[in-house]
Design a protein that fits this description.
It is built from 14 helices and 14 strands. By secondary structure, the protein is an alpha/beta fold. The protein starts with a strand and ends with a helix.
């Protein structure tokens, strides 16, 4: 668990973070979102003590982060940034092995951990001996995430880790990361300026402005009970539609019933947002829902989608 209590940090006369308070539950992913320069990245750096707070306290699993030496603290926290920050003179294997070697793991244990992570991110085999300059942007981002996970830290700080990736690969990386998070259940504080990414990934979303955290809540609560007009305006008029991306068709489909051969078909695993998009594109009020093997198992229509909009999950 992360607890940020009344933390302030100034750069000259500018308050980069001002009396910020936030709690991130153990095993959950909290997304920090807000305009550029609102203090999101500074808050991450305050947590791992790349910069020092002037006021307030930051507790990690109940322990004040100032009680640990900065270098020891950072080795216990995974940190992934937009520019990736891979060491250009080290191979992919060596980059991922960096923190375990600092922690003096045995070489056999390091090798097993690196191979496990390379398989997890889909870059096993020949990638282990490549250098960062030989990787695509998306591949480098995946290696950056693997390096953050290398020492199996309970806490991950991620500063726009997919920000420099093209939209198609960005969605794929988000999906891969969600699968990793589902498996590992890390405590994650994730910075983005992209509302779609925040909705897709976050168990909770914290909205920042001018160094302050205005509201931190589950995604649906931000539309039900926004703390003020800035939260509503920043999230945008389509925020309700974005929430449909969190809900799979299988959650609200009508099971059974005759399969209409004229209806368009959709997988039970896609989101309500994708299903609604297909309805609009095909001019259909209802879709046949099928499972993996193509067997019809029910249907989804506008009525169910509208119910989800009225009662977002």
């Amino acid at each position: 668990m992360i607890q940020v209590r009344g933390v302030t940090k100034h750069y000259g006369e500018l308050a980069a973070v001002e009396r910020a308070s936030l709690e991130v539950a153990e095993g959950s992913l909290c997304v920090l979102i807000g305009p550029s320069g609102c203090g999101k990245s500074t808050l991450l750096r305050l947590i791992n003590r790349l910069v020092e707070a002037e006021e307030g306290e930051i507790l990690i699993d109940g322990r004040d982060n100032r009680l640990s030496r900065p270098e020891e603290l950072r080795r216990s926290i995974g940190y992934s940034i937009q520019s990736v920050g891979l060491f250009p003179h080290l191979t992919v294997f060596e980059n991922i092995a960096t923190v375990p070697r600092l922690l003096r793991w045995g070489e056999r244990r390091i090798a097993e951990r690196v191979e496990e992570l390379l398989a997890m991110i889909g870059l096993e085999g020949r990638y282990r001996s490549k250098f960062p300059a030989e990787l695509s942007g998306g591949e480098a981002q995946r290696v950056g995430v693997a390096r953050a996970l290398a020492a199996d830290p309970p806490l991950l700080l991620m500063d726009e880790p997919f920000g420099s990736v093209d939209p198609l690969n960005r969605v794929r990386l988000q999906s891969e990361f969600l699968l990793i998070q589902k498996r590992l259940a890390k405590t994650v504080l994730f910075v983005t300026h992209d509302v779609d990414e925040a909705v897709r990934l976050g168990d909770s979303i914290a909205v920042m402005r001018a160094g302050r955290i205005l509201q931190a809540a589950p995604p649906a609560e931000l539309i039900r009970s926004p703390s003020g007009p800035f939260v509503t305006d920043f999230l945008g008029s389509e925020y309700g539609l974005k929430l449909l991306g969190r809900c799979p068709v299988s959650q609200l489909m009508v099971r059974g019933g005759p399969a209409d051969p004229l209806r368009p078909r959709v997988s039970a695993e896609v989101s309500l947002k994708e299903a609604l998009s297909l309805m609009i594109a095909r001019g259909a009020e209802r879709l046949t829902v099928e499972e993996g093997g193509g067997k019809p198992i029910g249907s989804i229509g506008l009525a169910e989608v509208l119910r989800a909009l009225k009662e977002p999950s």
